[in-house]
Amino acid sequence: MTTTTVPKLVGPVKGGGFKGAVAFEWTKFWSVRATWWNLAVGLLLTVGFAAMVGASADASAQKGVDVTMPAPHHAAQAFLISQLTVVVLATLALTSEYSSGSIRTTLQSVPARGRMLRSKTLVVMAVVVAAGFVFSAFGTLVAASLMGDHGAYSGGEFLGTALGAGVYLSLLAVMSIGLGTVLRSAAGTITTVIMVLLALPQLMGVIGAKWLETASDYMPSVAGTVLLTQDTDPYGAGTALIVLVLWALAAYVAGSAALRRRDA
What gap in Å lies between CA 25 and CA 22, rounded to an integer? Predict the structure, then answer.
């Protein structure tokens, strides 16, 4: 995100309140090319990876391997990659303003810092929920077309995976915004989130300590997988949602505290 376009406002928005702050953030969010690029790349990655998974499953089935699984669950594997575009999208929504200096204009327009962060978070969450649903739907349709009968699925499985994708990615976006508010660095935030999502759970699982293996089950990526596939191992969707909410809440509270205590 190289440029950020904001309305030409002098001083705070009078009488705007939270609704005005949301409208302000909504305008900024859609006025930059990076938003469109990240969403487009996320969709392409999901569809492309789902096609690879579907084709691979079909090839395995022809060799006698049992790959019978609902297509939405196969397509969910694509989120291992496409979730990274959501991390970038949410991170840049805030950190780009620090790098460009436009955070000063934002805080002049919405001087209540808590309101600014809430409105920005709400806008990003709303967009990502819809994007996750669309990513999952298209990924499922592509995977199913290549898997044939081996990927048969019900409407409930289709809808459950799509909703799970939207919820998971939206809470992942909140984590990225919260951490980005603390670090104020796009590179640092993206690297940290990727480590927490991908590298750390793997390391915790291979070290061999039982308590670390148990702890790795409560990392965001594991909980997200449970939501996407409606699995019951290592826990159900209800627990997975609680785990993700707690991660998102912790990051948001940390970001809110940092925003209030430091200068722009």
Answer: 5
Q: Which two tokens stand for residue 118?
A: 């809430």
Residue 11, pLDDT score: 46
C-alpha 257/C-alpha 165 separation (Å) is 29
What is the structure's pLDDT at 264? 65
In angstroms, rounded to a whole number, what is the distance separating the alpha carbons of residues 231 and 82? 20
Mean pLDDT, the chain, integer: 89
Q: Could you read off the pLDDT of 47-78 as tens digits, one per residue?
A: 999 999 989 888 888 887 877 788 898 889 88
Contact 165, 132 (CB under 8 A): yes
Q: What is the pTM of this model?
A: 0.88
Cα(238)–Cα(223) distance, integer angstroms? 10
Region of 64 on the Ramachandran plot (φ > 0 left; ψ -120 to 50 alpha; else beta): left
Residue carrying the six token digits 């949410």: 90
pLDDT tier, 149 (very low <50, low <70, confident <90, very high otherwise): confident
Apex CA 106: angle with CA 104 and CA 108, to 5°?
A: 70
What residues contact 146, with CB distance under 8 A and at least 6 apart? 51, 54, 55, 57, 58
Measured distance CA(243)–CA(235) in Å, rounded: 11
DSSP for residue 230: T
CB neighbours of 248 closer than 8 A, spacing ≥ 6?
171, 172, 174, 175, 178
